[in-house]
């Protein structure tokens, strides 16, 4: 079995270890004998998201988002088509924001998003009021509910999210006080959790791999891996945040 991954704007959108998500996808596939090939897409490249099983886009500062958003808009039709084909997306922070209606930055500059979903993001005008720090979230995805941890750093406040990824247990999430974090559909996981997300929460990595395998091969059988260390590390962070650890 083979999964083809496309990493959008790898040289611009890679904050707080986001590239670790790619490493974990490769490693968790390799340990199960699944080939995982990773291509990158950079400004002006001629590659189609619809040719891939998983597409990943990390976070970036306003500056980087500004540099790439027009190029991203050029991919819109193919991305919409890839949704029909079942391509799976993992979007972190700045990447998550740009799949919505728009991102209005702290200086009042508005970047059009892909507009594929109803949510929109506006930066808080109070520069001291960014959402920064470790975060714990009760995630519900594909019928599984569990605790995830990450690190957030965003001025953007994302509103009008009808299907959040989870409930914020500590930290902020989509807005400073909405109580909800991220966005999830059948083929998109969007989140403010850097950290990076998948090394800290291998269960989400496996959900993503299963989703991709299911639509490509009609099976989502995955051999279990030993995540003792990852689970211990996550529990340390949950405790530090005053959240009941798991298992
Ligand atoms: N520039 C965006 C914000 O501050 C995204 C930041 C990020 O990706 N961490 O909201």
Kindly describe this structure:
The chain has a single domain, classed as Rossmann fold. The chain is of the alpha/beta class. Helix 1 crosses helix 6. A six-stranded mixed β-sheet has the order 2-1-3-4-14-13. A four-stranded mixed β-sheet has the order 6-5-7-10. A four-stranded antiparallel β-sheet has the order 9-8-11-12, covered by helices on one side. It is globular and about 50 Å long. The chain is 29% helix and 29% strand. The protein contains seven helices and 14 strands. 44% of the residues are buried. Glutamine binds next to helix 2 and strand 9. The site of glutamine has 13 residues, from helix 2 and strand 9.
Task: Give a short summary of the structure.
The protein has 247 residues and is α/β, with parallel strands linked by helices. The protein contains seven helices and 14 strands. A six-stranded mixed β-sheet has the order 2-1-3-4-14-13. A four-stranded mixed β-sheet has the order 6-5-7-10.
Helix/strand order, N-terminal first: EHEEHHEHEEEEEEEEEEHHH
In DSSP terms (H or I, runs of 4 or more residues), the helix count works out at 7
CATH topology, which one?
Answer: Rossmann fold
Whole-number average pLDDT?
97
Q: What structural category characterises the helix and strand content?
A: alpha/beta
**Structural domain tally:** 1
Gyration radius, rounded? 17 Å
Low-pLDDT residue spans: none
- Using the 3D structure, state the CATH architecture: 3-Layer(aba) Sandwich
């Amino acid at each position: 079995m083979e999964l083809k991954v496309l990493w959008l704007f790898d040289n611009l959108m890679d904050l707080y270890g986001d590239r670790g998500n790619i490493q974990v996808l490769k490693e968790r596939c390799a340990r199960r004998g699944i080939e995982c090939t990773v291509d990158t897409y950079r400004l002006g490249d001629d590659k189609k998201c619809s040719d891939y099983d998983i597409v990943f886009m990390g976070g970036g500062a306003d500056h980087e988002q500004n540099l790439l958003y027009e190029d991203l808009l050029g991919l819109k039709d193919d991305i919409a088509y890839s949704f029909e084909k079942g391509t799976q997306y993992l979007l972190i922070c700045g990447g998550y924001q740009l799949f919505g209606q728009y991102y209005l930055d702290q200086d009042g500059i508005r970047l059009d998003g892909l507009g594929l979903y109803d949510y929109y993001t506006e930066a808080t005008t109070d520069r001291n009021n960014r959402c920064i720090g470790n975060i714990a979230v009760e995630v519900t995805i594909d019928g599984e509910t569990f605790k995830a941890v990450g690190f957030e750093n965003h001025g953007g406040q994302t509103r009008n999210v009808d299907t959040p990824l989870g409930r914020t247990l500590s930290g902020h999430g989509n807005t400073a006080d909405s109580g909800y974090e991220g966005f999830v559909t059948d083929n998109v996981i969007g989140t403010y959790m850097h950290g990076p997300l998948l090394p800290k929460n291998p269960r989400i990595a496996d959900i993503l791999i299963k989703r991709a395998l299911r639509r490509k091969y009609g099976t989502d059988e995955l051999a279990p891996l030993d995540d003792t260390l990852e689970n211990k590390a996550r529990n340390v962070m949950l405790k530090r945040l005053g959240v009941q650890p798991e298992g």
